[in-house]
Amino acid sequence: MKMFDNNLNIGWNELTLSRNEIFLIIVFIGIFLHSLLWFQLLIYKIKIDLTFFFSLTYLLTDFILMLAFIIQYIIRTNFQRSTYGFVCYFEAYFIVYVDIIETIFLTCLSICRYFDIVWNKNVYINYRKLILFISIILPILIIINMFIQNYYGWSIVLDEIGSSCSINNKNIYVIIFNEIILFFIPIIISFYLNIQCLIYLKKRNCSKTNNHNYKLINRFLIFYLIWLILWGPFVFIEQFYTKLITNQIEFIVILLTTLDNTIDAFLVSDLDQRFKIVWKKTYSSILIKLKLKRTLKIHSIL
Questions:
Q1: Cα(182)–Cα(179) distance, rounded to whole angstroms?
Q2: Where are the domains of the chain?
Q3: Where are the transmembrane segments (predicted)?
Q4: How far apart are CA 136 and CA 116, in angstroms?
Q5: Which of 166, 186, 225, 288 is 20 to 30 A from 105 in CA distance terms?
Q6: What backbone torsions phi and psi does residue 164 show, to the nearest 5 degrees?
Q7: Is the CB of residue 225 less than 8 Å from the CB of residue 248?
Q8: What is the pTM assigned to this prediction?
Q9: What is the pLDDT of residues 248-274, one digit of tens each?
Q10: For residue 164, which of 10, 1, 273, 2 has the smallest C-alpha distance?
């Protein structure tokens, strides 16, 4: 079901445009930082295997969201009416879809680490096919869920003049279902499993492996709290009708998520040690080059 009119003015109004210009600057910074991180992963030949899958997927979703915003900005400021219906659905559903994937894949990462640490099972080897199956089936199920809700008119694509298109969930039960299944339950599972990992590691004798895992879980919880503060409000309010949310609140919430996308290039170092390694290598190489240049200058003066 849809609620938009091809004869409407398809551009953003002045207020929306000015705010999106701010977001665009932040997104360009984010694109640069994320591109730099991906480049570092390639030049340092970091081994990419199934243990790296969920962390990389999270990083990739950030990059996709930023590219999607740039595409949205270009289309909205240079629009062709013939493609308006597609663009409206893209604006309304794509970001929500990627948000859900981020949330669920972070939970999958927590589940894998829990079994690895507490049950001492290498799930990436013993349950390789199951992980791949889940990674394929979950995004498909999310699409099916969205399609069903739209088909039966429980959620509609709402076009507001001068603003971006958004989802309006008309059924309160659909809102409750989406919030509980796609937001609260994955977050609760993630927190619970990571806290269980910490409790388990505290009871064990302190060994090198346990100490590494303890730091890993602590860093992940810090990352998760930052993600929840910056990203959580948007994931929560996107299920509600935008008219119920003031422009100021909407601006702040989107600003927080945009900032989160940008700084995730650094924050993912707490997700996986391999991200931290490449940033450290780059930082060290920059320091060495700067020190070498300074030494050469001193010698040239002498």
A1: 6
A2: 2-271
A3: 22-43, 50-75, 95-118, 130-152, 172-195, 216-237
A4: 22
A5: 166
A6: -75, 155
A7: no
A8: 0.87
A9: 888 898 999 999 999 999 999 999 999
A10: 10
